[in-house]
Amino acid sequence: MKKSVILCVDDEISVLTSLRDQLLHFFGDTYQIELAESAEEALEVLEEISQEGKEVPLIISDQIMPGIKGDELLITIHERYPKALKIFLTGQATIYEIGNVVNKASLQAFITKPWDEASIKLIVTKSLHSYFLDKQVNEYRKSLIKANQELEEKIKERTQDLEKAKKELERALEQAQLAQEVAESANKAKSAFLANMSHELRTPLNAIIGFAELALRAETNPKQRDYLTRIEVSSQALLEIICDILDLSKIEAGHLQLECTDFVLEEIVEQIVNIFSVNARKKGVQLILEPITYEIGILKGDPLRLKQVLINLVSNALKFTIKGKITIRSELIQKTEDNVVIEFEVKDTGIGIPKEKMSILFKAFTQVDSSTTRKYGGTGLGLAISKKLVEMMNGCFEFDSEEGKGSIFKFTVEFGHKEYVFKNISKTNAGDVDYGMGMALKGIRVLIVEDNAFNRFLANEILRDMGAIVEEVENGAQALEVLVTKGKAYNAILMDVQLPDMDGLEVTRRIRMNEGLKTVPIIAITACAMQGDKERCIASGMNDYITKPMHVNQVYQVLKKWVPMS
């Protein structure tokens, strides 16, 4: 019996040898492991294997190689051997290159260098399982078709046997459908991978952004402040990319849900103008907000997601407009007793979009052309996410553009509405940093439970700068010892969710079992940002939730909410 082949491609022989040895360790002699030191050699090996009649369930390829790169190789292989699954093994592939292979070659997974044994074993095993499961489903289909044909030939002679065979056929179809659903679930691993990558990146970003904020609040000379400001701006840009990837993975997995809160439309559009007014003035571009002339009262919906769509459209307009103006306009399209439909328009006098490129405008990981990617930057996710968000808000997108003259983006959104209630409406932007907080936490005792030393230090610095008395522990067991055994009292506890041995949710549940600790505020601080994470924290007994990266004002506002200030 011919063995199935796993092909490994990398221009470094040490990497190939290490990978081959690990695969042999995982699977023994179950598979034939073939190595290739270049894309050209890989194609030759595949041709020889094909002539021998052997199947290739899995191809693992590096990206950076002399000659043909890994993404080009995998796309070529997919055209010739579409059934083979593909895995990237690299530390240097860009999001665009990954997305290119995902779209054109059905990339199965992505493994970063250096890898750990457990991760590569899990990914390779799942990929092989998906391949052979799909093969089994196809064999089921063929056998069922054959069985059905045989039954039709005998139907006149064996009516009674036919009824029995039909029942067996129905059971087999159910099993085949189940197997197909299992195989399709493997494709969802792509979305899970994006979500996991976003989560892992948020933790180090927490320290980078947090310390940059703290440093900017300290006394620095102009050159240092310029450097720190650039670090903060770059970190925030990276965070926006990560959030885009996370939003896309949530949408694809069906886990993104909209909030429903009261808000004032005028405040949202004014905030958009405030965000971009400084950069617009620097570029010499007019940013015009047409006044809202219609009356709609208080809107009910998700203001943050509306703001996200408008920020993306205005950001793109400003990015691609060298001179002229950008106009933001809204119009009331429909109003009933309970709902309103509002149309928003962002119009610019920028570089415009070629007509032949308009069809790819809302596709994820795409740009109009590679030159704009190099000159203007971006992941190609913003418009794709914005379109999905608008559709979730019962709206639709439309646009028009003329190359060299500018673009017009319009979208409609449906909201609930009610009359104005002035006492609960604030015109401040909660995301703005409050530099007047001073020693607002003076005398307040806070316990930090965090296993990451950098993040412990960051939280410590933020709290001490505001006058708090801070103690810190590294894990849940130490937290329980301090709180329960030693009986120390704190005004608040900042609890990381992902702790070693015992996670923050279990630690919280155990704390709440103590009668004297049922009311102490426990605030979750975590890099988890998927649907349901906040609900799980609250269900465990926590009072509130801060997503990393945490900001100085964010920590202050949450503690202010739960701890009486002097």
Features of this protein?
alpha/beta, 17 helices, globular
Helix-and-strand structural type: alpha/beta
Report the β-strand fraction as a percent range: 15-25%
Radius of gyration: 29 Å
Tell me the major beta sheet: 7 strands, mixed
Mean pLDDT: 81
Helical residues, percent? 40-55%
Shape: globular
* Model regions low in confidence, pLDDT < 50 over at least 5 residues: 369-374, 421-436
Say how many strands there are.
17
Can you tell me about this structure?
With 566 residues, this protein is an alpha/beta fold. It is built from 17 helices and 17 strands. The chain has helices at 13-27, 39-51, 70-80, 95-105, 117-154, 159-185, 189-217, 222-253, 265-283, 303-319, 370-376, 382-392, 453-465, 476-485, 504-512, 533-540, 552-562, and strands spanning 5-9, 32-36, 58-61, 85-89, 107-111, 261-263, 285-289, 298-301, 324-335, 339-348, 397-402, 406-418, 445-449, 469-473, 492-496, 522-526, 544-547. Strands 6, 7, 8, 9, 10, 11 and 12 form a seven-stranded mixed β-sheet that branches. The chain is globular and about 85 Å long.
